[in-house]
């Protein structure tokens, strides 16, 4: 029973990780870059949300709306000011630029919010749970998983059947050919980053409702997002979703073997995938 | 295209006499200064205070770790944000050999680099499957795995860490002599070794890989093997610095040994000093060291500035300070490239 | 001749330190088919890239309707009415035929009175309609080339640049593709044809330019230029001496 519980909790945890991973998969797919501030942005949005909630006594759902919009705005600024200057075949400039920004962001957050862990007050829903056979399942984690599923499905539909989605897929396949077909690469890039950071707005609210956030936590969210993307298979939206589930299950089962082994178990599954199936679960040969 | 060259070769029939030169006056001066500095580091117990020795050893470790990162990113095209993995495993290996196995600690330092070499060889097999930026994050995961694994490993006292109590059997002078000699040796290996490597035909091949991997491969350069070797060599150098650093600290814990600060500092030093040059690393290390002494009291604000400076360098001055200096003076302290001089008839 | 639709004026282009083009003067009028021939490395593709804004050139070096457009970003040039069928086709791998075409429709310039529609394109290449839903990478080389041409046409070009569209295709397919060109130019679209096959280029075009080592070595009406003149312009003085 303990293992079944571990599996269910793992899938639910995967719902949160999927929200970290989607944006990273999207940005890497179209720009071939990794934004090292990815995790720090979750924390930044979460801390802003927590401050908003306490200052204006806003409920978590109105905070969510504000953070998603704010995330999109931050994404546009990040792309225009920094990423557009470092996107290219050489991975070094984008890594270093976002690495430097990450250090600056973490320490700026430390200055503003101190090193304390904080969380968002969500009311009754945070503690609500229902019985599923012999197990108790939290309402909030189920909402998180449903949200992740809807976000993944929605993003998939956008990529498949909208003007923006086609332009983005075209730019992923061959950015120069896309430009020669009338696509403005910078518009596509900006759109992708805006969506990616907007999704982190969801992640920020759920992360701070489910547990706590502190300024230095961003590194973990970055690594979990990355592991989910690689486990699932690079460049695939549903791959990132599936990879997030696999990571969540690994951590959850590992945690039940030994509390000190949970996060390590996730890393080991990631390394095992790299050794045995480097193209990822959904990747093609 | 071939015709363009065929046509022009007629006009240049009488080839001008040229010499290939790598030594310049400034490089000779720099060479002399480096030797003097090495001697100064090695002889610190004779003239320096305990505090100064500690500072200089720390600076030597930064220079080494940064130079290894420079070798990876500036020449090998391998961007790592997880070099702390090698700092940590080497330092822990040294503690185990000296404290648990009773080996002479000064001998344990050079021996300990076997462990990062093995770890590097194994992890490269996995990491090289990751594309460009993902390679970098992969190195971070490896460092995290090692940190977490060390934290639950009872043999090395898990999360509580270890103390190097065997050092108390040496007098302060003996310790100072040992650590100063080891630091000088480390600088010689890291900076001198990189210099020789970059001047060798392997160095040329590395530069070729950096500038155009496809073309280098088509010219018969074994890109994969060279990248692997440089990855392992950098792990060895980084590990050596880790072992020396924690020997000076006398204490080790998983969070300190595998601290991301090592990656932060290397990246800052190389990016501010100048990627792909030895001079840049030396300049960057000095800038970092001075900044750290003067501004570290401002804590987080100081790190915000450090991070933003790295960002600005990546955006606007990829050659770092050394690149800017070279634009003005065109002098090279450690010339690794060849200069063609045309002799007047 | 009527005023040129697209022209270049002393166009100079370089890749880093390497100068590839030394002052190219070129022009094409609406409805014309102009061939661009020359040996490998003569600068034909470089000229097309410069026109499309992929290489940095001064504004006055490229003019469209007499307006300077040199150095304009590729997606803006497309919106201005210049489209290219790139060398090697460069289709969007992983996307279906129809999605490849839709990218062009989504970002097309001002459509002309009788602009290109999917219907009209399917009339030209019926295969495209049958294979709509098929991923482009599973098509044959000739079919892929038709998608590439279709994609360029749906950008509603006034000038269509074709970079080596016969390369690597079976003669029968080449013939089929070349037969489609007159019906494209009849509507007023100017076509620039970069072509290795000199005979084919000459037969299809109204005028031709021959390039040699980054310069125009010969230009004139295709029907009036002799094979010998082309041979000399193609291989340069070295050939004449040999």
User: What portion of the residues of chain A fall into strands of 2 or more residues?
Assistant: under 5%
CATH topology name of chain A: ABC transporter involved in vitamin B12 uptake, BtuC
Strand content of chain B: under 5%
Shape of chain B: globular
Q: What is the largest interface, and how many residues per chain?
A: A-B, 47 and 47 residues
How does the helix and strand content of chain A classify structurally?
mainly alpha
Average per-residue pLDDT of chain A, rounded, comes to: 93
- List how many beta strands of chain B DSSP finds: 4
Order of helices and strands of chain A: HHHHEEHHHHHHH
> Measured on Cα atoms, how large is the radius of gyration of chain A?
19 Å
* Number of separate domains of chain A: 1
Number of strands of chain A: 2
What's the overall geometry of chain A? Answer: globular
- What's the mean pLDDT score of chain B? 85
The number of helical segments of chain A is 11
Q: Which key features would you list for this structure?
A:
heterotrimer, A: 285 residues, mainly alpha, ABC transporter involved in vitamin B12 uptake, BtuC, C: 242 residues, alpha/beta, Rossmann fold, 10 helices, 36% helix, ABC_transp_permease (chain B)
Please explain how this structure is put together:
The complex is a heterotrimer of chains A (285), B (345) and C (242). In chain A, 75% of the residues lie in helices and 3% in strands. Chain A has helices spanning 2-31, 38-55, 60-86, 91-113, 139-161, 163-173, 175-179, 185-210, 218-232, 237-257, 262-276; strands spanning 129-132, 135-138. Chain A has a single domain (2-276), classed as ABC transporter involved in vitamin B12 uptake, BtuC (Orthogonal Bundle), CATH 1.10.3470. With 345 residues, chain B is mainly alpha-helical. Chain B has a domain at 20-259. Chain B starts with a helix and ends with a strand. The model of chain C has no long low-confidence stretch (mean pLDDT 91). The longest helix of chain C has 16 residues, at 171-186. In chain C, α3 (97-106) packs parallel to α6. In chain C, β1 (6-15) and β2 form a beta hairpin. In chain C, strands 6-7-8-3-9-10 form a 6-stranded mixed β-sheet, with helices on both faces. In chain C, strands 2-1-4-5 form a 4-stranded antiparallel β-sheet, with helices on one face. Chain C has a single domain (6-235), classed as Rossmann fold (3-Layer(aba) Sandwich), CATH 3.40.50.300. Chain C starts with 5 loop residues before the first strand and ends with a helix. Chains in contact: A-B, A-C, B-C. Chain B binds chain C through residues 1, 3-4, 6-7, and chain C through 39-41, 213, 235-236, 238.
